Amino acid sequence: MSVRELVVLGTASQVPTRHRNHNGYLLRWDGEGILFDPGEGTQRQMLRAGVAAHDLNRICVTHFHGDHSLGLAGVIQRINLDKVPHPVTAHYPRSGQRFFDRLRYSTAYRETVGITEAPVDADAVLATAASYRLEAARLSHPVESYGYRLVEPDGRRMLPERLAAHGIKGPDVGRIQREGSIDGVSLDDVSEVRGGQRFAFVMDTRLCEGVHTLADGADLLVIESTFLDEDEQLATDHGHLTAGQAARVARDAGVRHLVLTHFSQRYSEPEEFERQARAAGFEGELTVAHDLLRVPVPKRR
Description:
Blueprint: E1 4-10, E2 24-29, E3 32-36, H1 42-49, E4 58-60, H2 66-69, H3 72-81, E5 88-91, H4 97-104, E6 115-117, E7 124-128, E8 133-138, E9 146-151, E10 155-158, H5 160-165, H6 171-179, E11 181-182, E12 185-186, H7 187-190, E13 191-194, E14 198-202, H8 209-215, E15 220-224, H9 232-238, H10 243-253, E16 257-261, H11 271-279, E17 285-288, E18 294-296
Helix pairs in contact: 10-11
Protein backbone atom coordinates (compact mmCIF):
# COMPACT_ATOMS: atom_id res chain seq x y z
CA MET A 1 0.00 0.00 0.00
CA SER A 2 1.37 3.40 -0.95
CA VAL A 3 2.18 5.85 1.83
CA ARG A 4 2.07 9.59 1.42
CA GLU A 5 2.86 11.50 4.56
CA LEU A 6 4.96 14.33 5.94
CA VAL A 7 7.33 13.57 8.79
CA VAL A 8 8.28 16.78 10.62
CA LEU A 9 11.82 16.57 11.99
CA GLY A 10 12.26 20.17 13.18
CA THR A 11 10.22 23.36 13.36
CA ALA A 12 12.46 26.11 14.76
CA SER A 13 13.62 29.09 12.76
CA GLN A 14 17.09 30.59 13.22
CA VAL A 15 17.62 29.42 16.80
CA PRO A 16 16.56 25.99 18.12
CA THR A 17 14.77 25.78 21.47
CA ARG A 18 14.35 23.13 24.15
CA HIS A 19 11.32 21.82 22.28
CA ARG A 20 12.06 22.65 18.64
CA ASN A 21 14.96 21.38 16.55
CA HIS A 22 16.24 23.20 13.50
CA ASN A 23 14.31 22.55 10.27
CA GLY A 24 13.92 19.18 8.62
CA TYR A 25 10.99 17.61 6.78
CA LEU A 26 10.68 14.22 5.11
CA LEU A 27 7.95 13.61 2.56
CA ARG A 28 7.13 9.96 2.00
CA TRP A 29 5.56 9.65 -1.42
CA ASP A 30 4.80 6.06 -2.32
CA GLY A 31 8.17 4.33 -2.42
CA GLU A 32 10.30 7.49 -2.34
CA GLY A 33 11.52 9.80 0.39
CA ILE A 34 12.26 13.48 -0.20
CA LEU A 35 14.14 15.34 2.52
CA PHE A 36 13.57 19.09 2.65
CA ASP A 37 15.88 21.61 4.35
CA PRO A 38 18.00 19.45 6.66
CA GLY A 39 19.11 21.81 9.41
CA GLU A 40 21.55 21.04 12.19
CA GLY A 41 20.56 17.93 14.15
CA THR A 42 18.61 16.31 11.32
CA GLN A 43 20.40 12.96 11.71
CA ARG A 44 19.34 12.77 15.35
CA GLN A 45 15.76 13.71 14.51
CA MET A 46 15.67 11.08 11.76
CA LEU A 47 16.64 8.47 14.33
CA ARG A 48 13.91 9.63 16.70
CA ALA A 49 11.32 9.59 13.91
CA GLY A 50 12.29 6.18 12.56
CA VAL A 51 13.67 7.55 9.30
CA ALA A 52 16.71 5.79 7.81
CA ALA A 53 19.22 6.99 5.24
CA HIS A 54 17.88 4.25 2.97
CA ASP A 55 14.56 6.12 2.93
CA LEU A 56 16.08 9.09 1.10
CA ASN A 57 15.88 9.47 -2.68
CA ARG A 58 16.06 13.26 -2.99
CA ILE A 59 17.24 16.19 -0.91
CA CYS A 60 15.70 19.60 -1.61
CA VAL A 61 17.31 22.67 -0.07
CA THR A 62 15.41 25.96 -0.35
CA HIS A 63 18.39 28.19 0.49
CA PHE A 64 21.74 28.22 2.26
CA HIS A 65 21.00 29.75 5.63
CA GLY A 66 22.32 27.45 8.32
CA ASP A 67 19.01 26.46 9.89
CA HIS A 68 18.01 24.99 6.53
CA SER A 69 21.25 23.38 5.40
CA LEU A 70 23.84 22.72 8.13
CA GLY A 71 22.55 19.17 8.51
CA LEU A 72 23.55 18.36 4.94
CA ALA A 73 27.06 17.31 5.92
CA GLY A 74 25.87 14.69 8.37
CA VAL A 75 23.04 13.42 6.19
CA ILE A 76 25.28 12.99 3.14
CA GLN A 77 27.95 11.23 5.18
CA ARG A 78 25.29 8.94 6.68
CA ILE A 79 24.05 8.07 3.19
CA ASN A 80 27.60 7.01 2.35
CA LEU A 81 28.22 5.22 5.65
CA ASP A 82 25.07 3.14 5.18
CA LYS A 83 25.89 2.54 1.50
CA VAL A 84 22.43 3.48 0.28
CA PRO A 85 21.93 1.26 -2.79
CA HIS A 86 19.86 3.63 -4.93
CA PRO A 87 20.64 7.03 -6.50
CA VAL A 88 20.18 10.14 -4.35
CA THR A 89 19.66 13.52 -6.04
CA ALA A 90 20.23 16.90 -4.39
CA HIS A 91 18.44 20.07 -5.51
CA TYR A 92 19.53 23.50 -4.24
CA PRO A 93 20.02 27.05 -5.55
CA ARG A 94 22.86 27.09 -8.05
CA SER A 95 24.13 30.34 -6.57
CA GLY A 96 24.93 28.38 -3.40
CA GLN A 97 27.10 25.79 -5.13
CA ARG A 98 30.12 26.75 -3.04
CA PHE A 99 28.15 26.16 0.16
CA PHE A 100 26.92 22.78 -1.05
CA ASP A 101 30.48 21.76 -1.95
CA ARG A 102 31.78 22.82 1.46
CA LEU A 103 29.04 20.91 3.28
CA ARG A 104 29.37 17.81 1.13
CA TYR A 105 33.13 17.63 1.71
CA SER A 106 33.36 19.34 5.08
CA THR A 107 35.23 16.44 6.72
CA ALA A 108 37.04 13.25 5.71
CA TYR A 109 34.88 10.21 4.90
CA ARG A 110 34.74 7.38 2.40
CA GLU A 111 32.44 8.26 -0.48
CA THR A 112 30.50 5.12 -1.45
CA VAL A 113 27.37 6.69 -2.93
CA GLY A 114 27.33 9.11 -5.82
CA ILE A 115 25.09 12.04 -4.95
CA THR A 116 23.67 13.51 -8.15
CA GLU A 117 23.84 17.29 -7.99
CA ALA A 118 20.93 19.02 -9.75
CA PRO A 119 21.08 22.72 -8.84
CA VAL A 120 18.18 25.09 -9.50
CA ASP A 121 18.53 28.49 -11.16
CA ALA A 122 15.01 29.26 -12.43
CA ASP A 123 11.37 28.31 -12.07
CA ALA A 124 11.36 24.86 -13.63
CA VAL A 125 10.26 21.25 -13.64
CA LEU A 126 13.17 19.49 -11.93
CA ALA A 127 12.19 15.86 -12.33
CA THR A 128 9.40 13.65 -13.59
CA ALA A 129 8.71 10.29 -11.98
CA ALA A 130 5.86 7.80 -12.35
CA SER A 131 3.80 9.32 -9.54
CA TYR A 132 4.88 12.96 -9.42
CA ARG A 133 6.41 15.95 -11.14
CA LEU A 134 8.84 17.98 -9.00
CA GLU A 135 8.74 21.72 -9.62
CA ALA A 136 10.61 24.72 -8.20
CA ALA A 137 9.64 28.39 -7.96
CA ARG A 138 11.72 31.39 -6.88
CA LEU A 139 10.89 32.98 -3.54
CA SER A 140 11.79 36.36 -2.00
CA HIS A 141 14.45 36.20 0.72
CA PRO A 142 17.74 38.04 1.37
CA VAL A 143 19.57 35.09 -0.24
CA GLU A 144 18.39 33.19 -3.30
CA SER A 145 15.65 30.79 -2.28
CA TYR A 146 13.33 28.33 -4.03
CA GLY A 147 10.21 26.54 -2.92
CA TYR A 148 9.22 23.11 -4.18
CA ARG A 149 6.04 21.39 -5.28
CA LEU A 150 5.08 17.80 -6.14
CA VAL A 151 2.24 17.34 -8.60
CA GLU A 152 0.74 13.93 -9.25
CA PRO A 153 -0.51 13.36 -12.81
CA ASP A 154 -4.28 13.50 -13.16
CA GLY A 155 -6.02 10.15 -13.31
CA ARG A 156 -9.47 8.81 -14.09
CA ARG A 157 -12.33 7.91 -11.78
CA MET A 158 -14.65 5.28 -13.22
CA LEU A 159 -18.36 5.96 -12.58
CA PRO A 160 -20.28 2.73 -11.83
CA GLU A 161 -23.70 4.14 -12.75
CA ARG A 162 -22.49 5.24 -16.18
CA LEU A 163 -20.71 1.94 -16.78
CA ALA A 164 -23.93 0.12 -15.93
CA ALA A 165 -25.99 2.41 -18.18
CA HIS A 166 -23.76 1.53 -21.13
CA GLY A 167 -23.62 -2.17 -20.25
CA ILE A 168 -19.89 -2.14 -19.62
CA LYS A 169 -18.75 -4.61 -16.96
CA GLY A 170 -16.11 -7.18 -16.11
CA PRO A 171 -13.00 -7.22 -18.35
CA ASP A 172 -14.48 -4.50 -20.54
CA VAL A 173 -13.92 -1.95 -17.74
CA GLY A 174 -10.19 -2.47 -18.03
CA ARG A 175 -10.39 -2.56 -21.78
CA ILE A 176 -12.06 0.84 -22.11
CA GLN A 177 -9.44 2.30 -19.75
CA ARG A 178 -6.66 0.95 -21.96
CA GLU A 179 -8.19 1.59 -25.37
CA GLY A 180 -10.25 4.74 -24.73
CA SER A 181 -13.48 3.46 -26.27
CA ILE A 182 -15.60 0.34 -26.82
CA ASP A 183 -18.38 0.00 -29.39
CA GLY A 184 -18.86 3.74 -29.68
CA VAL A 185 -18.71 4.38 -25.91
CA SER A 186 -15.79 6.63 -24.98
CA LEU A 187 -13.86 6.74 -21.75
CA ASP A 188 -15.26 10.24 -21.16
CA ASP A 189 -18.78 8.76 -21.23
CA VAL A 190 -18.14 6.50 -18.24
CA SER A 191 -15.52 8.32 -16.17
CA GLU A 192 -14.31 11.70 -14.99
CA VAL A 193 -10.95 13.29 -14.41
CA ARG A 194 -9.54 12.68 -10.94
CA GLY A 195 -7.15 15.45 -10.05
CA GLY A 196 -3.72 14.35 -8.86
CA GLN A 197 -2.53 15.19 -5.37
CA ARG A 198 -0.35 18.23 -4.79
CA PHE A 199 2.19 18.92 -2.06
CA ALA A 200 3.89 22.31 -1.65
CA PHE A 201 6.86 23.35 0.48
CA VAL A 202 7.39 27.08 1.05
CA MET A 203 10.12 28.26 3.38
CA ASP A 204 11.80 31.59 4.11
CA THR A 205 10.14 34.22 1.94
CA ARG A 206 8.13 37.39 1.80
CA LEU A 207 4.85 37.38 -0.08
CA CYS A 208 5.65 37.01 -3.78
CA GLU A 209 4.38 35.37 -6.95
CA GLY A 210 6.29 32.17 -6.23
CA VAL A 211 4.43 31.64 -2.95
CA HIS A 212 1.06 31.74 -4.71
CA THR A 213 2.26 29.58 -7.59
CA LEU A 214 3.49 26.84 -5.28
CA ALA A 215 0.41 26.91 -3.04
CA ASP A 216 -2.14 26.81 -5.86
CA GLY A 217 -4.49 23.89 -5.35
CA ALA A 218 -2.22 22.15 -2.83
CA ASP A 219 -3.70 19.29 -0.87
CA LEU A 220 -0.96 19.77 1.73
CA LEU A 221 0.92 23.07 2.08
CA VAL A 222 3.89 23.31 4.43
CA ILE A 223 4.69 26.98 4.86
CA GLU A 224 6.77 29.12 7.13
CA SER A 225 5.04 31.46 9.58
CA THR A 226 8.02 32.78 11.45
CA PHE A 227 6.18 35.76 12.95
CA LEU A 228 2.79 36.67 14.33
CA ASP A 229 0.78 39.37 12.59
CA GLU A 230 1.72 42.15 15.00
CA ASP A 231 5.30 41.76 13.76
CA GLU A 232 4.45 41.95 10.06
CA GLN A 233 6.94 44.74 9.36
CA LEU A 234 9.70 42.73 11.00
CA ALA A 235 8.71 39.74 8.87
CA THR A 236 8.88 41.80 5.67
CA ASP A 237 12.22 43.34 6.61
CA HIS A 238 13.79 39.92 7.16
CA GLY A 239 12.11 38.09 4.28
CA HIS A 240 9.51 36.06 6.18
CA LEU A 241 5.77 35.50 6.54
CA THR A 242 3.34 35.90 9.40
CA ALA A 243 0.68 33.39 10.43
CA GLY A 244 -2.05 35.54 8.91
CA GLN A 245 -0.20 36.02 5.63
CA ALA A 246 0.43 32.29 5.28
CA ALA A 247 -3.21 31.52 6.03
CA ARG A 248 -4.49 34.02 3.47
CA VAL A 249 -2.24 32.45 0.85
CA ALA A 250 -3.70 29.05 1.71
CA ARG A 251 -7.26 30.39 1.71
CA ASP A 252 -6.92 32.02 -1.71
CA ALA A 253 -5.12 28.99 -3.18
CA GLY A 254 -7.78 26.48 -2.12
CA VAL A 255 -5.39 24.55 0.14
CA ARG A 256 -6.99 21.61 1.92
CA HIS A 257 -4.50 21.09 4.77
CA LEU A 258 -2.25 23.91 5.97
CA VAL A 259 0.84 23.16 8.06
CA LEU A 260 2.45 26.19 9.73
CA THR A 261 6.08 25.87 10.82
CA HIS A 262 9.47 27.63 11.21
CA PHE A 263 8.58 29.58 14.36
CA SER A 264 10.66 32.32 15.94
CA GLN A 265 11.94 31.61 19.43
CA ARG A 266 10.37 34.87 20.62
CA TYR A 267 6.91 33.26 20.85
CA SER A 268 5.93 30.91 23.66
CA GLU A 269 2.28 30.25 22.73
CA PRO A 270 1.91 28.20 19.52
CA GLU A 271 -1.87 28.41 19.89
CA GLU A 272 -1.69 32.04 18.82
CA PHE A 273 -0.51 31.00 15.34
CA GLU A 274 -3.65 28.93 14.93
CA ARG A 275 -5.88 31.74 16.20
CA GLN A 276 -4.39 34.24 13.77
CA ALA A 277 -4.59 31.79 10.85
CA ARG A 278 -8.28 31.20 11.53
CA ALA A 279 -8.87 34.93 11.92
CA ALA A 280 -7.37 35.36 8.44
CA GLY A 281 -10.17 33.25 7.03
CA PHE A 282 -8.60 29.85 6.40
CA GLU A 283 -11.27 27.20 6.98
CA GLY A 284 -9.50 24.02 5.89
CA GLU A 285 -7.59 21.57 8.06
CA LEU A 286 -4.91 23.40 10.02
CA THR A 287 -1.86 22.12 11.88
CA VAL A 288 0.63 24.12 13.91
CA ALA A 289 3.60 21.80 13.51
CA HIS A 290 5.73 20.38 16.27
CA ASP A 291 8.81 18.18 16.09
CA LEU A 292 8.28 14.49 15.18
CA LEU A 293 4.75 15.12 13.96
CA ARG A 294 3.38 12.95 11.14
CA VAL A 295 0.84 14.46 8.75
CA PRO A 296 -0.85 12.32 6.09
CA VAL A 297 -1.38 13.84 2.65
CA PRO A 298 -5.17 14.25 2.32
CA LYS A 299 -6.93 11.60 0.27
CA ARG A 300 -7.68 12.42 -3.33
CA ARG A 301 -10.62 14.70 -3.88
